[in-house]
Write the structure tokens for this entry.
Amino acid sequence: MAKQTFTAGNVLTAAQVNTLQQNDYNQTVSAKTASYVLVASDVGTRISMNSASATTITVNTSLFAAGDQVYVVNIGAGVTTITAGTATVTTSGSLALGQYDSGTLYFTATGSAIFFSASASGDVTLTGTQSLTNKTLTAPVVTYSINAQTTTAYVTVASDAGAFITVSNASANTFKIPTNASVAYATGTTIQVMNIGAGTTTLSAVTPATTTITSAGAVSASPTLAQYKAAQCIKTGTDTWLVFGAIA
């Protein structure tokens, strides 16, 4: 049931109250098989798009009030795109909904809405830990955090998880991984390091008696990197790391 308007003196039957209560838990569904322009009675309902071809949902002004919401789900193979008609629609994600994606239009004013997408289709930025189920990533772009170091003795920090670290020093230098008690990297964490300086970089543990580093280097626990050589460090256990790459 869509949003209702009552006036003084209205008397509701038990059936009407039950219908209103049911809508609180299971929104009224409006099924569409072609592009659709929202109308005022869509407030508080779920628009279900089901088309094999691309469709649009157009949002116009003077239909909804601040605080109103419209939920949109796409169950068809064709992409559904939320389109601003005479209203303004903003989002931090994508206005395009792939199959089985959904989102909510939240109106901040009669002519302005924010679209909160629950999908991972289109161009989106993922931060932190994300889980993608039944999603196809087409030409994904992974951006690394760059940590440029010029010191002769660097110890990794929490923010280095997943980062790309460059070491540039004319003298021999060290790159050390702390104990789990000092920095509790999650198992599976990767840290990439590249030596761009003339001095040889030696990779090792801050506390070898606690943290075990294994590699194919001449000295397994302390492999080295010559200039323009790189390695990847992967945490495989609480205090165990594997290092591989262009090491010596």
Summary: The two ends are 70 Å apart (CA to CA). Residues 61 and 87 are 5 Å apart (CA to CA).
